[in-house]
Design brief:
The complex is a heterodimer of chains A (about 120) and B (about 110). Chain A is mainly beta. Helix content of chain A is about 0%, strand content about 60%. Chain A is built from no helices and eleven strands. With about 110 residues, chain B is an all-beta fold. In chain B, a hairpin with a 3-residue loop joins β7 and β8. Chain B is globular. Classes of the chains: A mainly beta (about 120), B mainly beta (about 110). At the A-B interface, β5 and β10 of A face β5, β9 and β10 of B.
């Protein structure tokens, strides 16, 4: 499982409240990612990080922010949760896997978020 | 535009009935095509990476192949424990683009 944990695993919250999800890895990987998974859309990238304090936006970043103050932790914050952010959120890391340095992504167990 | 398209969306097979799942992609300069398995309530689990047309990789009852436009995941004599959603993905820049998956059900 590439040493990835996510917390909480399940959360119910109300519209308008801020929510923070945590991803923790134990193997010093440089790259970390946050995805959301929804029926009919598959996995979509929210934000990713390529080092401490280095982050960039993905395909569906609106309404989300991230922070990475330590190599092992990557936080995803929903600034003001909306019902459209009800989803399953996955954290991933990547490792070099090919002769040319291509990266393979490995995923955490996910966080199920329900926004009422 | 769609980078990755998977078909069929769902597939029901009898135990032992072989079949194939399709993943077509539109990116140029492919830097790898990745297959994952996802069980309900869990994160995707890495299966294979294919890097060039003609390449094949096998794992138990699964064999993945790659052409210039698509990849196939062949399942030979499947068992109920092969039931899962199978995802494919391609890297574009620093991002991975995933298909929506094929949900496979193998009936005993």
């Amino acid at each position: 499982d590439a040493g990835i944990t996510q917390s909480p695993r399940h959360k119910v919250t109300e519209t308008g409240t801020p929510v923070t999800l945590r991803c923790h890895q134990t193997e010093n990987h440089r790259y970390m990612y946050w995805y959301r998974q929804d029926p009919g859309h598959g996995l979509r990238l929210i934000h990713y990080s390529y080092g401490v304090k280095d982050t960039d936006k993905g395909e569906v970043s609106d309404g989300y922010s991230v922070s990475r103050s330590k190599t092992e932790d990557f936080l995803l914050t929903l600034e003001s949760a909306t019902s459209s952010q009800t989803s399953v959120y996955f954290c991933a890391i990547s490792e070099p896997s090919g002769l040319a340095g291509e990266e393979t992504q490995y995923f955490g167990p996910g966080t199920r978020l329900l926004v009422l | 535009e769609d980078q990755v398209t998977q078909s069929p969306e769902a597939l029901r097979l009898q135990e032992g009935e072989s079949s194939s799942l399709n993943c077509s992609y539109t990116v140029s300069g492919l830097r790898g095509l990745f297959w994952y398995r996802q069980d309900p309530g869990k994160g995707p689990e890495f299966l294979f990476t294919l890097y060039s047309a003609g390449e094949e990789k096998e794992k138990e009852r699964l064999k993945a192949t790659l052409t210039k436009k698509e990849s196939f995941l062949h399942i030979t004599a499947p068992k109920p424990e092969d039931s899962a959603t199978y995802l494919c993905a391609v890297p574009v820049g620093n991002q991975f683009y995933f298909g929506t998956g094929t949900s496979l059900t193998v009936i005993p």
